[in-house]
Structure formats: C-alpha cells, structure tokens
TrEMBL record:
Organism: Thiomicrospira cyclica (strain DSM 14477 / JCM 11371 / ALM1) (Thioalkalimicrobium cyclicum)
Lineage: Bacteria, Pseudomonadati, Pseudomonadota, Gammaproteobacteria, Thiotrichales
Function: Catalyzes the transfer of the alpha-amino group from S-adenosyl-L-methionine (SAM) to 7-keto-8-aminopelargonic acid (KAPA) to form 7,8-diaminopelargonic acid (DAPA). It is the only aminotransferase known to utilize SAM as an amino donor.
NCBIfam families: bioA, PRK05964.1
Domain of life where this protein originates: Bacteria
Subunit structure as annotated in this protein's UniProt entry: Homodimer.
Protein's UniProt name: Adenosylmethionine-8-amino-7-oxononanoate aminotransferase
Modified residues (N6-(pyridoxal phosphate)lysine): K276
PANTHER family linked to this entry: ADENOSYLMETHIONINE-8-AMINO-7-OXONONANOATE AMINOTRANSFERASE (PTHR42684:SF17)
This protein's UniProt keywords: Aminotransferase, Biotin biosynthesis, Cytoplasm, Pyridoxal phosphate, S-adenosyl-L-methionine, Transferase
EC number, as in UniProt: 2.6.1.62
Length: 443
C-alpha cells in the first residue's frame, strides 16, 4: 500500500476522522519559512507549525546546539539527575520573565504545562489549609489544551470539548472581554468585568485561580482584548485572594510584540505557562514558572512535594534547543521583526472588504481575517495552496502566525495570497448562493 494511503487509513491526525476524507500533504523537508513536499512543491508557511517555529525552520544556530547535544546526551531521567541544558534554560527563562517568577517546572507539552499549573494552584491551597479553594475561573472563548484538566477550563460551549462536558471539573466561566484591534484601544469592559466580579463575589471561597490567555485568546477565536481589562481583572482576583495563572503558551516569547503578553497590562501572574515557541518548533517542550508564594505554599505542609514527574521531564535535547532559541531572541531584534510583520499585514489588508468579512486585526506576529461564515475554511486553504502558501484556517478564522524571521517579501506574499484566497472563496460562495436562489421554483 502507498505510504500515504496507509496514513489516511491508519493514523489519526489532529482533530480528524479516521479514515481521513483527504490525504494529508506529504512533507519531506523544511528550511527557513518554506516547506518542501515529496512531489517537489514548495509552500511558504503562514502557520510556523502551529505558531511554534518562531525563528523559521532549521535555524543553523539551533541545529548546531541540537546536534551537539544529540551526540553528548539526548536524554537522562530528571529524577535524581540534573544537567546544564535544564539549568541554563531555567535560568534564562527566570531572567526574561516577570521578576517575581523565580521557579520552574519542565513539562512535555502545553496541555501538560496547564495540568501542572492547575495542580500547583490546587496544591497550594490544600497546603496552606484552604482545601475548599478547588475550582477555576476561565474566560469564555478560552482554549488551554486537550487533556482533562485543560479541557475543563476551555470554553464549554464554543470550545472543541463539549463532548466531554460530563467528565470535566465544574469550573466557572466569565464573560470574555470584547474584541479590540490593539491592547491599548480604549474600550468599555464594564459588562465583562462585572461578570467576573459577580463570580468572584459569589464563589471566591471555593476558587483556586483565574486562568487566562493574556491579550490574545488563540485557538478559541483569535480574539485580541484590552490591557485595561486584564489589569482590572487581575486586581479583582487579587482583592478576592484568587491566584492568577497566565497561559502564555501561544503569546509568550514575543508573539504579541512584547516578550510576554502580561507586560501589556503590567501584571505579574503567580503561575505562567510556556510552550509552542519555547522550543522553536523543533521538539516538544513546555515550562511552568511560579513565584515564591506558590513554591513556599506547596512546600509548607506535608508531603511538601509537587506530585508530577513525567518520564521525559526536562529532556536535555529539548532544553538545549529551547535555550538556544531563547538566546537567539536576545541576539536579534525580534521586536522590530514582529512589529514589521504587523505593519505588513495590516497595510496589505487595508482595502480588503466584503460583507462577509467582519473583522481584520493584526498584532505583532498574529494576523487575522474573521468571516461571518464558517463553511469556507477548506476552500480558502485550497486556493492558498494553489498559490503556494500553507494556511490552516479554522471555521470563520483565516489567520497567519508566521516565523518572526520571515522576510518582508515573504510576509507580503502571504498577506496577498490570504486576501485573494478569501475573496475568491467569498465570490464563489456568493455565486453559489445566487444560483441556489435562482434554482428555487416560484410558488
Ligand atoms: C496550544 C495551546 C495549549 C496546548 O498546548 P499543546 O502543546 O498543544 O498541548 C495550551 N494553551 C494555549 C493558550 C495554547 O495556545
């Protein structure tokens, strides 16, 4: 059997049926922002492999660090051992993150980092003698991952996990802040702050933490929201003694134009999760940072242990890669690069208009066209592929989160192809709608 027919019949792909309706593209190599397929076609990558390959693919500095580590020590158990890749990475993360975050836990993926963050918050309250504080507040439209704890803080209605609603922790959801175009845009956040305040007022004695994606809600809708909301929401949580968990798996390490999106609102969470771009799109790694309050709380009561320890915790190869990637961020002007991406996309889309385009927003390395219909994602992806661009729109959202190192020419090409693919799909859909109307018999 052809390899790719085998794939289609036997291997699950993300959020997909088996067998898949369409075979996956056969990728054979990557370089910079280009993906080469088995048949020789080259695609310009608008997705940076789910927002993770922040310096582009096969960056020579990272490849060199990885190769050296691979020869020396690809893995060693973290129980009883430590190693330079882990200590150097932890030090680097503590140095660049908000100053109060001084301790690190390494996990294997974003979802697991969220599990550990939730666990830290629960264990903190148990340790300090307040075991009733055992629920979480999240925002509507939130996305925090696919494992059970993470699913329980994803949007219960719009999220991807309503199938499991009966199996999840009964958490609480506050109204999401309104979408804005820039975190500093003045917006009326009163209604959603009131929603959070009401939940806190009623339930604070049973709430461990408020978990949120700072400034950009990613997979739950690519929604940008205002720094003022975040600032006031954080103050409300502080007032009711509810911990703050910032999930920066998508936003962290420069994606929104700040190193951490929390900086937009000038807040310091108790716990912060990192993933995706952490290991530069090369290997799976995530991290949870926490402050001294959390560490001391967890350590204060017996058993005092943080009860988590994955087999591949702090994998040296992954840590070495992540450390090389974080060092690279210090070596080039990522902030100018990301700001330039924002300008290129927003300029390219200035004249873009159609009644079905309901939102266009660009912040740092995130560029989004939002439609009011969710049936065109496949068609738009196909049109973009014909033009040599890899997009993976979901539902109503056509977006790009490219590598920071993408050239201006490449970014312009992606922006143009996205705009033309969206317009072609909308025009095709309009024609079809008209044809359907005309076919309808008069009655
Ligand atoms: C992607 C994502 C996760 C989950 O990370 P995985 O590595 O896919 O498990 C969690 N939170 C946010 C905000 C994310 O964007």
């Amino acid at each position: 059997m052809n390899n790719f027919l085998f794939d289609q019949q036997h291997i699950w792909h993300p959020y997909n049926r088996l067998p898949a309706r369409q075979p996956a593209l056969a990728a054979s190599s990557t370089q910079g922002c280009t993906i080469t397929l088995d048949d020789g076609r080259q695609l310009l990558d608008a997705m940076s492999s789910w927002w993770s390959a922040i310096h582009g693919y096969n960056h020579p500095t990272i490849i060199a660090a990885a190769s050296e580590q691979l020869q020396k020590m690809p893995h060693i158990m973290f129980g009883g051992f430590s190693h330079q890749p882990a200590t150097e990475l932890a030090q680097a993360l503590i140095d660049i993150s908000p100053p109060s975050l001084t301790h690190t836990f390494f996990a294997d993926s974003g979802s697991i980092a969220v599990e550990v963050a939730l666990k830290m918050a629960l264990q903190y309250w148990k340790s300090i003698g307040q075991p009733r504080k055992s629920r979480f507040i999240a925002l509507q439209h939130a996305y925090h991952g696919d494992t059970f704890g993470a699913m329980s803080v994803c949007d219960p209605v719009d999220g991807m996990h309503h199938l499991f609603a009966d199996n999840l922790m009964p958490n609480l959801f506050a109204k999401a802040p309104p979408i804005c175009h820039h975190p500093s845009e003045p917006l009326d956040n009163q209604a959603c702050l009131a929603s959070l305040a009401q939940i806190l007022e009623q339930h604070h004695h049973e709430i461990a933490a408020f978990i949120f994606e700072p400034i950009v809600q990613g997979a739950g809708g690519m929604r940008f929201y205002s720094a003022d909301y975040l600032k006031e929401a954080a103050a409300l949580c502080r007032h009711y003694d509810v911990l703050l968990i910032a999930d920066e798996i998508a936003t962290g390490l420069g994606r929104t134009g700040k190193l951490f999106a929390c900086e937009w609102a000038d807040i310091e969470p108790d716990i912060l999760t990192l993933g995706k771009g952490l290991s530069a799109g090369m290997i799976s790694l995530a991290a949870v940072l926490c402050n001294e309050r959390i560490r001391a709380g967890i350590s204060q009561a017996a058993p005092g242990l943080l009860m988590h320890g994955p087999t591949f915790m702090a994998n040296p190869l992954a840590c070495r890669i992540a450390h090389a990637s974080v060092k690279l961020l210090n070596d080039y002007d990522w902030q100018t690069a990301v700001t330039q991406l924002q300008h290129i996309f927003s300029q390219a889309w200035q004249g873009l208009a159609h009644p079905d385009i309901v939102g266009i927003r660009c912040l740092g390395g995130v560029a989004v066209i939002e439609l009011n219909r969710d049936d065109l994602a496949g068609l738009i992806q196909e049109f973009a592929l014909e033009e040599g661009v890899w997009l993976r729109p979901f539902g109503k959202l056509v977006y790009s989160m490219p590598a920071y190192t993408m050239t201006a020419t490449e970014a312009q090409q992606i922006a143009q192809v996205m705009a033309s693919a969206v317009m072609k799909a909308l025009i095709a859909a309009d024609k079809q709608d008209t044809a359907l109307k005309q076919q309808r018999p008069f009655v």
